[in-house]
Design brief:
Blueprint: H1 3-21, H2 25-31, H3 38-47
Helix pairs in contact: 1-3
Domain YjiS-like: 3-39
Keywords: Plasmid
InterPro entries: YjiS-like
Length: 48
């Protein structure tokens, strides 16, 4: 993986973590996401 792609993936990961982190527990629950799982959900979003 090249540097530009790695940087782009990191930015997408951070954006996803930040957006999910701003949600309330109720909103996350509606999506089926536990607050403790935000980072793993963000990582999985990069895979596909």
């Amino acid at each position: 993986m090249n540097v530009a792609r790695s940087l782009n993936n990191w930015r997408k990961y951070r954006q996803t973590v930040n957006e999910l982190g701003r949600m309330t527990n109720r909103e996350l629950d509606d999506l089926g996401i536990n607050r403790a799982d935000i980072r793993s959900v963000a990582r999985a979003s990069l895979a596909g």
